[in-house]
Write a structure and sequence with these properties.
The chain has 425 residues and is mainly alpha-helical. 44% of the residues lie in helices and 9% in strands. The chain has helices at 25-36, 44-74, 86-93, 98-111, 115-122, 128-137, 140-148, 153-166, 169-183, 216-232, 242-260, 279-283, 302-309, 337-347, 386-392, and strands spanning 197-202, 208-213, 275-276, 292-294, 299-300, 362-366, 381-385, 397-400, 406-409. The strands form four sheets. Strands 3-4-5 form a three-stranded antiparallel β-sheet. The protein has a two-stranded antiparallel sheet with strand order 1-2. A two-stranded antiparallel sheet has the order 6-7. Residues 1-22 and 326-333 have low confidence and may be disordered. Belongs to the Rv1128c/1148c/1588c/1702c/1945/3466 family.
């Protein structure tokens, strides 16, 4: 647990521009015209027709996006900005969610094998969500398996396109299942790990919401572990609902594992709960809402931080007058745990433009190498994931400007700028 000041992450380096050779000015002019129309002056019929037209136009744009991203992926265009994949580029440069970026990539990949469905998509008759129904079930493995078994994928392609144009959204899922049934009529036992999913999202107040999908065997293990804790703690007068009991048991399972010290390390340190809070807030008896910050970004009250500190190691980081942790000096060749915590609190993620990999994927990089006189201190440190740590040792460069913003340059000296490509200033 650290007693350091919470530092705001620097503003992202966003540049907004429009390359004229990619999108025509006519497209933006059309959108500007649509946005300026007074919908209150339209009849109900006109509004409905307008809605249908916009959906078709969005479908066509989604189709072109999938085609373009697929081309960029096959040509490794993301390497131009120092990234390994178009998935990373979509997430880091144009702010798509992880799920949305994956959806675009799946669409471009599967449509290469389904020309009829692709044509319907490009014509605006098929939606991105309908393409996703197919793409989520028909991956490269299924395409290869169909070819090996002599299954006519073209027939299914035509059928899926017809169903997508003429039937309900749910009907397409049934049609896709027919293909999977033909692909594996005997229903061989699947790999249980392939269907397992766990997603966690953070809410505005720092709480988390999640859902998971498990196979029967994996689900039985989870239920058995949770049930053991639920049944071991059934105090008289317990008014908790069953779902509350299960949630408390899950947290207790994690408490037990963290306390055991047997979990794998995260970048040289054991996984642990980190709370950053000013010392004054920690000792103040007031509640102090939002005074502490957890390692994954949530904020908590000073009272809750004190509660966590009752059974925790406390590390004190002395802050300088500029609000940053003081340097540790050149005598430290290896990054100490204290310095690493300070760098993580300042940078929050990989600082390479468009990346944002979490701290536990990252190394602490010396901006000026030790052998060239660089000190092992906060000012000379940057958080970089393994891939981008390698990149900056092979021509790319990261630098923190006086305003606290990280900037990234390619080997040719051009700066990597990120942001939505909409206008040219």
């Amino acid at each position: 647990m650290t007693g350091s000041m919470t530092l705001d992450a620097p503003a992202p380096n966003v540049v907004v521009e429009l390359p004229g050779d990619l999108f025509g000015c006519d497209l933006l002019s059309t959108l500007d015209g649509l946005a300026s129309e007074d919908l209150h002056a339209s009849t109900d019929r006109a509004v409905l027709d307008r809605t249908a037209l916009l959906v078709a136009a969005r479908n066509r744009l989604d189709a072109e996006l999938a085609r373009t991203v697929r081309h960029a992926g096959t040509t490794q265009a993301a390497e131009h900005d120092g990234l390994k994949s178009m998935r990373s580029w979509l997430i880091g440069h144009v702010r798509l969610s992880v799920n949305e970026a994956s959806r675009v990539l799946r669409a471009g990949r599967v449509l290469e094998h389904l020309p009829v469905l692709a044509a319907g998509f490009a014509a605006g008759e098929v939606t991105a969500a309908q393409v996703e129904v197919v793409a989520a079930a028909v991956g490269p493995g299924e395409v290869a398996q169909a070819e090996e078994q002599g299954i006519d994928l073209a027939g299914f392609d035509q059928a899926w396109a017809d169903v997508a144009r003429e039937c309900s959204h749910a009907s397409l899922g049934v049609a896709v299942q027919a293909f999977l049934g033909a692909l594996d009529p005997d229903g061989c036992e699947p790999d249980p790990t392939e269907g397992r999913r766990l997603s966690i999202s953070r809410n505005a107040d720092g709480s988390i919401t999640g859902r998971f999908d498990l196979d029967a065997g994996g689900g039985e293990k989870v239920q058995a572990a949770i049930e053991s804790i639920v049944q071991a703690d059934r105090p008289k007068g317990d008014t908790r609902t069953r779902s509350q009991q299960n949630a408390d048991a899950l947290v207790q399972l994690c408490d037990n594992q963290l306390a055991s010290g047997n979990l794998p390390t995260l970048r040289t340190v054991k996984p642990h709960v980190v709370v950053g809070i000013d010392l004054a807030d920690l000792v103040d008896p007031a509640t102090g809402a939002g005074a502490g910050e957890l390692g994954f970004g949530a904020t908590i009250s000073a009272a809750r931080a004190r509660w966590l500190a009752c059974d925790a190691d406390v590390s004190r980081i002395v802050m300088g007058p500029d609000g940053e942790p003081l340097e540790l000096g050149r005598r430290h060749r290896v990054v100490t745990p204290g310095l690493r915590r300070a760098v993580e609190r300042r940078d929050r993620s990989c600082v390479f433009a468009g990346c944002g990999a979490p701290t536990w994927w990252c190394d602490v990089h010396h901006l000026i190498h030790w052998v060239h006189g660089g000190e092992t201190n906060l000012e000379n440190s940057a958080l970089l994931c393994e891939r981008h740590h390698t990149k900056v040792h092979h021509g790319f460069r990261v630098e923190r400007d006086p305003g606290g913003r990280w900037r990234t340059w390619r080997p040719d000296g051009t700066e990597i700028l990120i942001g939505p490509l909409l206008h040219r200033s």
